[in-house]
Design a protein that fits this description.
Radius of gyration: 20 Å
Helix content: over 70%
Largest sheet: none
Structural class: mainly alpha
Distance between the termini: 57 Å
Number of strands: 0
Length: about 210
């Protein structure tokens, strides 16, 4: 019983840390792409932004094979490939909200800030990031939830003997050990509920801000 409990805690911590890292990577990349798309009209950047948002439409197994073929010549560590796969697959989840939020920010704010002598870093830090705090938080939580329950990508790219909650549920279910699969499945549900509970105040604050602006 103690071994099973310790294993469950280890799996939960591992899934939690992976999901947090993937969420931070995906949202950071989404912010960079969204801001770059706002400040430049280069065709290559628009094409890159479009392609970056297609990862969610690609099956996890197909994406995992593509990353293995890409990373093998460079001998990229499996854990780095796994985080790369997460951030690529769920980039569209984080990016959609940021794009919509940036469209509601008037370009005159950027022009006024640059007219006052601010460089792009100051505009980003003082104007864009504060206004995008709500969509960034929502993107973090959505990517977190998707990463915790992601199976095909995790199963294909995880390092040896590096299971997560979703992988362990799949292994138990494949062996018809449904009773043992129950607790890891409940832990996935608990992590998802924790993220959802953290999302509610952010949505309420965003609604209040919109009401004030209207």
């Amino acid at each position: 019983q103690n071994n099973f409990t310790n294993d469950l805690l280890q799996l939960s911590l591992r899934s939690l840390l992976l999901a947090l890292a993937a969420a931070l990577l995906a949202v950071s990349a989404a912010v960079l792409l969204a801001i770059a798309k706002r400040w430049t009209t280069a065709p290559w950047l628009r094409s890159l932004t479009f392609l970056a948002g297609m990862g969610y439409a690609i099956p996890g197994t197909v994406l995992a094979l593509a990353l293995l073929l890409t990373g093998a010549p460079w001998q990229i560590a499996p854990l780095a490939l796994l985080l790369w796969g997460y951030s690529d697959r769920f980039l569209a989840v984080a990016k959609s909200g940021l794009d919509a939020a940036l469209e509601r920010i008037s370009p005159s704010l950027d022009e006024a800030a640059t007219g006052m002598g601010f460089d792009w870093q100051q505009v980003l830090r003082r104007i864009h990031l504060p206004l995008l705090r709500g969509p960034m938080t929502v993107g973090l939580l959505l990517v977190f939830v998707d990463t915790v329950k992601e199976l095909p990508l995790t199963f294909a790219l995880r390092p040896f003997d590096f299971d997560t909650l979703s992988v362990r549920v799949y292994q138990y279910a494949s062996d018809e050990r449904l009773a043992e699969a129950l607790l890891p499945a409940l832990m996935i549900l608990v992590l998802g509920l924790m993220a959802s509970m953290a999302l509610v105040p952010t949505l309420d604050q965003s609604s209040n801000n919109r009401s004030i602006q209207d």
